[in-house]
Every structure is written in structure tokens, then in C-alpha cells.
Amino acid sequence: MLKTTKNLDMGSVSVMQNLEKQTARYYLMCERNWIYHLLITVAGYFGAFTYLLRGNVFCNAQTGNVVLMGLALGNGQWQSAVYYLIPISAYLAGAFVSELLPNPVKHHLPMRWDTLLIAIEMLAVVGLGFVPESAPVQISQVVINFIASMQYNTFRQAEGVPMATTFATNHIRQLGIGLAKEILHRHSEDKSHRVKLLRHFQMLIFFVLGAVIGTVFCNLLVGKAIWITLLPLGIVFCAMLHADLTTEKNMVEKNPNSKN
Predict the structure, then answer these.
(1) How many Å apart are CA 112 and CA 118, to the nearest integer?
(2) pLDDT single digits (tens) 118-153
(3) How many angstroms from the chain centroid is the CA of residue 51?
(4) Could you give the C-alpha distances from 85 to 65, 89, 91, 145, 219, in angstroms and in order?
(5) Which of 128, 147, 118, 109 is nearest to 38 (CA)?
(6) DSSP bridge partners of 158
(7) Can you give the pLDDT at residue 1?
């Protein structure tokens, strides 16, 4: 009897441990790989849109603007240097806002900040589609700077792997690291690095795909081409909102990018 009871207790512990492991491995909808694939596709599309139609610039990151501001300062072009503070400030503001809002949003609205952010992006996209071609390109640039910064600061990790959803630089870097590990581990049974390598490769492919699709529609629809991104953003929003209201309704305190 004691042996049977002991076996039952050990069996119960084993079941509990398995349940804990499954819970620890649960990823919120906002962390799913396919969500990140759609978001970086939109980022590639934005890149094509701003480069082809809005001033031949990329608004998803700010390295270029910082370099151009430095060049302007070095050449004594003070007015141009001050101009570059506008997109840089918009990017800074996006990070600032996205750092402050997550907790208030999840405690006062029936959705997470991540979900609300996608809704904000969709509203911004709708507005940008109405901007006439004769309007200053800076309008579109600043808006995309702002939402790209919020997205970059919000969506940080896809199913346990750190990711960027607004530009491709880190994915290219990670491909190089992954290929180096292929050589270093060629005689080892440990091939765990391949999972990360594949994920970064997928992100890069989706970014390029977004740029290709963006180029096609920008040539066809000009400024209104940006409305095409409402389709992938709408899919992301509906999936995340449904999770917020149903399967993840009682998980509001579980933070993305963690096992808490």
C-alpha cells in the first residue's frame, strides 16, 4: 500500500512538473513566429513606400538620419542638421510612449498594449493613404518613424528568440553567426543553433518579400499603396484581440518576452 501511494505521489509530481513545463513554454499570441513574419513583411513594405514615394529614405531605423545630421554639422549646414532632429525625435517619442503605456493599457482596457499598437498603426496607415502626393514627404516620414519605433520597442522576442520586426540588419548579422556555428559545430551532435538560424533567415525573407510587394503596389497605386498593409496588420490585430478576449483573458499579468 505504501509503495502504491508513493508511486501515485511520484506520478502526481511528474504530471505537475510536465504541466509547469508546458505553462512555461506557452507563448502569448503577440510572441508567435507568424505574427513576427507578418510584421516584418509590413516593415519591408514601408521601406519600399518611403524610399520610392516619400523622399528616398528608410524610416524604419535612424542610423542614416544620425549620419546625415553629422555630415550636415561637419559641413556647417546648420539648418539641415536641425531638420534631421525631426525624424530622430519622432523615433525617440515612439520608444518613450511605448515604454510608458503597456501597464496602464492592460489594466484599463480589455486588450494588451501590443494589440492596441497594431490598431494605432492601422489608423496611421489609413491616414497616410489620404495624404496627397503634393504634400511634404516629411508627414509620412515622421508618422512611420513614430510607429516603427513603437513597434520595434514592443515586439522584441518571437517564441524565445530576440527579434527585430522593423529592419533587417540584425537578421543578417545572426545569419553570419549561425553559419559560423555550423562550421564550429560540424563534428558535434549539438545542432540547436539551427533553430535560431532558420528563424532569422525566415525573417529576412519576409522583409525582402514585403519590399518586393511594396514596390509593385507603389508603382500601381502611388500613395494609396500603403493601404495594402492594412491586410496583414488586420490579420495580426484580429488574432491578438481574439486572444486578449478569450484564451489569454486571464493572462494579463504574463509579460511578453518572459516566462512570468
Answers:
(1) 10
(2) 999 999 999 999 999 999 999 999 999 999 999 999
(3) 20
(4) 8, 6, 10, 12, 30
(5) 118
(6) 161
(7) 53
**Which cell numbers hold the place of 45?**
513594405
Looking up cell 525625435, which residue turns up?
89
Per-residue pLDDT tens digits for 64-98: 889 989 999 999 999 989 989 999 999 999 999 99
At residue 258 the predicted structure's pLDDT band, cuts being 50, 70 and 90, is low
Closest to 232 (Cα-Cα) out of 193, 206, 253, 208: 206
Instruction: Please say if the pLDDT value at position 16 is more than 50.
Output: no
Residues with Cβ < 8 Å from 176, sequence gap 6 or more?
none
Cα separation of 128 and 224, whole Å?
A: 8
Q: Kindly state the cell numbers that stand for 99.
A: 515604454
Contact 31, 257 (CB under 8 A): yes
Contact assessment for residue 256 and residue 31, using Cβ atoms and an 8 Å cutoff: yes
What residues have CB less than 8 Å from 259, skipping those under 6 apart? 24
- Cell numbers at 122, concatenated: 492601422
Q: How far is CA 228 from the centre of its chain?
A: 18
* Per-residue exposure over 53-71, b if at least 16 CB sit within 10 Å of its own CB, e if not: bbeebbbbbbeebeebbee
Tens digits of per-residue pLDDT, 30-62?
999 999 999 999 999 999 999 999 988 889 989
Phi and psi at residue 157, to the nearest 5°: -150, 125
Say how far apart CA 234 and CA 120 lie, in whole Å.
Answer: 11
The lowest-confidence range among 15-19, 22-26, 123-127 is 15-19
153 contacts 100 by C-beta, under 8 angstroms = no
CA distances (Å), origin 61, targets 123, 146, 199, 247: 21, 10, 21, 34
